[in-house]
Amino acid sequence: AQEKKIFMVQGPYPIIRRLLRARGWVERKLPGTGRQLEQHRGNQNKQRLQREPSNGGGRQREEEEQCDEDTNGIHDLMSYLVRDQLPNFIWTNFLEAIDRQLLQEDSVVNHYARVNAFTTKEGLCLSLQNLPWIEQADPNAFFPRCYRLGTMDDREAFIEDFRLTAARSLLKLALEEAGDRPVRTEQVPNSAKGAGESHISHPKHSTAGPGSPLYPELVEEALEVCKQHLGVLQHQDIDRNTPSPCRTCIDWDRFLQQYYCVAHEGARLVLTRQQQKQCQNLLQRLAEKLPQLDMEGKLNIWILKPGAESQGRGIICMTRLEEVLQLAWSCTAPSVQVGRWVVQKYMERLLTIFGTKFDIRQWFVVTDWKPLTVWFYQDCYLRFCSRPFSLRHLERARHLCNVSVQKWYKTSPDQDPRVPPDKIWSNKQFQEYLAQLGQADAWHQVLVPGMKAAILNTLRSARDQVGFRKGSFELYGADFLVGEDCQPWLLEINSCPTMSPSSAVTRRLCANVQRDTLRLVLDRKDNPTCSIGAFELIYKE
């Protein structure tokens, strides 16, 4: 105790507890910790019995368990002796879980206050909207467009974005086939309702049914809207008199209903060769101004998320403006305050592996905010969906990669057998896969630099909101999708990334990142040259 080596752990972190004890630290136990530990050991023993064959391993296991019990007895005695002393190191699930009376001025804690400025969907959305005022960086280059539906300005901006995206998408659909031949599109449902397959619903006010032709006037309207938008993007509205492209003399309700017929219900689109050339030219010029033009696809799918939830709760994909706005203001999700939704452009064109969507969980640690000091972990892992990727079916099993979502789904029969059964890959396996695609350099030259830049820009955008505490640190888990060009796109940042392994890969990597985090925040204080494992310093002001 005199050496200031008393720690406290709250939550399921047996590795942290074991590593600190091995360093000679003594645990001050929280009330109920003993029961949690016994339950955890019981689960571990049950899993071990299931894994081990029943031939001769029994005696060795009994000896190990006896040794564990002896060691635990010693630790329990030491914990009893320090039960009234304040801890010097605290590792917990949430900062709010710590009794403030337990904190000393020099206590090391694994969380900062007010990080919801970038660790909630709503906070991240707002912080990155403000990024251009803080840094010379464009959030649209690494973060899919996002709006908070609870604020009027954002809601109006989303409605305008949805309309403009529909107009651009119509031009893309018009170019799918060359010549004056009609263009036909695949059918897509309007939204995903829960875990089941979605049904196709037809708009109530359609002016054309499935299969009926829509003539060049619709394309002309889309061309006119996109021309005006390009003019705005090129700063031709310096005199501020240029109207918004969405305030032109177009009946937007009718336009969107006809767009839905083309994009989602197979209605034919007829256009002239001159219009085709105009579409090509306009989309090329828009691509120079809109970093998300390729990624956004042509079906105008958006993903609606509760602003402060995690683990995929309440998330749904939608394709119709009126349904997004209706859901955001309904009480279909009792746990979400009305209006606390964010809506984000869904990445329709992304890199898949064996026809399956995946995302990347990337760890990093902040050890200081003044000056900002960031460490990037050089190992990470991929999380796969349990059904093949399809824009025709928008249910969660195909589109949400969270382990907490996918654990409820069995791998579907049409899934490629090369997708790992536990739906997890290491970054090393991903690098091998990229090499097979002829993209061996993509990991180190595109993906890693892109993830680092996105993380740093996000931290800079939110830094003034964070409650800084000297000596503390925090381990975060950032989630990225990968575009067809291998460019990473940030989805969210988690302040309490799970350390409960769901596979052999995560069992190894989660243990390693906890080990290396303790090296970084404890061992390095006494020995600046000690090993910090896979951590790399990527920024220090």
Automatic annotation (TrEMBL):
Keywords noted in UniProt: ATP-binding, Cell projection, Cilium, Cytoplasm, Cytoskeleton, Flagellum, Ligase, Nucleotide-binding
GO cellular component: axoneme; microtubule cytoskeleton
Keyword flag Nuclease: no
Region annotation Disordered: where it falls in the sequence: 31-69, 181-210
A molecular-function term among this protein's GO annotations: ATP binding
Pfam families: TTL
UniProt xrefs under InterPro entries: TTL/TTLL_fam, TTLL_monoglycylase
Localization annotation: Cytoplasm, Cytoskeleton, Flagellum axoneme
Domain of life: Eukaryota
Protein known as: TTLL3 monoglycylase
Source organism: Promerops cafer (Cape sugarbird)
